Amino acid sequence: MVTISHCFQALRNRQQCALIPFITAGDPDLTTTAQALQVLDRNGADFIELGVPYSDPLADGPVIQAAATRALQTGIKLDQVLEMLRDLTPQLQAPLILFTYYNPILHRGIQAFFGAIVAAGVRGLVVPDLPLEEAEQLIKIASAFGVEVILLVAPTSSKQRIAAIAQKSRGFIYLVSVTGVTGMRSQMQQRVQGLLTDMRNITDKPIGVGFGISTTAQALQVKQWGADAVIVGSAFVQRLAEGTPSEGLQAIEQLSQQLKAAITPTSAPKTAAVG
């Protein structure tokens, strides 16, 4: 199984910035989710982040919260999501990153959780409410299963804390560009550029920037500031939810193509990282 780290190295060798779209599993239904993953995989996604619906999504803004609520109301649970993924992930080139909160992991049992997600083809994990101080056990078990746990850096983090997070994070480091929850913003905060510079002086691990990116101009700006990956969530979730499922799939196809084109040098090959 090719790791997220290896895929980032391949992208760096081609001097490409990665595109990481995020969608919510089960919104509007799991059949559409499976189709959306395939659409994103064919249209510029280098990795794909899939959110598991959760009843208390503290890190999510209104668009993703609404999507999770709709999915939960139709009875979507983690087991159904993983069952769908088991048949699908062998068809995807882009490595799949699961986004879930810590309580469902503890409820299932950490060993059982990783066994289940590995069987479904998941290669990375983001747990937004996992404190650094409690991450070591999860990362150790995840590593034994071949899953890379990606830790988040808040824009208010001290340099000492950034260094500690960078040391423990696997795959890449997820830089949160804004204080607060996910959601589309009209412009990127300038301090992201300084944070990226500070992080470059601390670590050589890939850095992905997320929360608040929704346009091609914002994606390009973050790439020019030195990010290794651009993470876009609410813009994809909103488009997928609008109109019929077919219209939603067409909308995310177009957005994915536009975002990838914006961050890809015209002289660089546009093939996705091999997964």
UniProtKB/TrEMBL annotation:
UniProt xrefs under PANTHER family: TRYPTOPHAN SYNTHASE ALPHA CHAIN, CHLOROPLASTIC (PTHR43406:SF1), TRYPTOPHAN SYNTHASE, ALPHA CHAIN (PTHR43406)
Record gene name: trpA
Entries under SUPFAM superfamilies matching the protein: Ribulose-phoshate binding barrel (SSF51366)
Assigned EC number: 4.2.1.20
Pathway info: Amino-acid biosynthesis; L-tryptophan biosynthesis; L-tryptophan from chorismate: step 5/5
TM segment ranges: none
Catalysed transformations (reactions): (1S,2R)-1-C-(indol-3-yl)glycerol 3-phosphate + L-serine = D-glyceraldehyde 3-phosphate + L-tryptophan + H2O
InterPro entries: Aldolase_TIM, RibuloseP-bd_barrel, Trp_synthase_alpha_AS, Trp_synthase_suA
Active site residues per record: 49, 60
Entry protein name: Tryptophan synthase alpha chain
Function, in words: The alpha subunit is responsible for the aldol cleavage of indoleglycerol phosphate to indole and glyceraldehyde 3-phosphate.
Subunit description: Tetramer of two alpha and two beta chains.
Keyword tags: Amino-acid biosynthesis, Aromatic amino acid biosynthesis, Lyase, Tryptophan biosynthesis
Family: Belongs to the TrpA family.
Record GO terms (molecular function): tryptophan synthase activity
GO cellular component: cytosol
